[in-house]
Amino acid sequence: MGLEAWFMDTSDEDQRKDHKMEPNQPASLEDLGKLGVFYRKLNADIYESDPKLEEIRKDQGYSYMDIITIHKDTLPNYEEKLKTFFTEHLHTDDEIRYVLDGRGYFDVRDHEDRWIRIATCKGDLISLPAGIYHRFTLDETNYIKAMRLFVGEPVWKAHNRPADDMDARTKYIASQH
Description:
Elements: E1 4-7, H1 29-34, E2 38-41, H2 51-60, E3 64-70, H3 78-86, E4 89-90, E5 95-109, E6 115-121, E7 124-128, E8 134-138, E9 144-150, E10 159-160, H4 167-175
Antiparallel strand pairs: 1-6, 2-7, 3-9, 4-10, 5-6, 5-7, 5-8, 5-9
């Protein structure tokens, strides 16, 4: 199955619920592509030796890699980190995540400032462009294991919205026209 994404409702119920509208309003890979979101499906069972992953890393220059497991038993300051991840923000570099196990949601803003929720699961590789407003949360399983990829040294700094005057944001907006 491919990636599933949809426009979100405005309920402030538990962030880990799916928040689909009634009726559901799906967002396509094409919709996401227009926002600069890149997606590939890979075989997470062979991530340590996957030639497709190696090819992507080489083509994109992803020289740095580590693995994060987000679960209350593995991540120090779990509740605090989840709140941070779910606060709307942007980065000065692309955010690249490859889901090795579990599930989670990446929410991105479209051109009309509506939230699109992207459901990710094992095998999904997603890249969010520098400067796009986004946030992350687990789903109701409360678990994800993901590879974080970077070009060069990792920069973990999140810039919470509003950050419209930042170079990464202005470049992102300019690339969308």
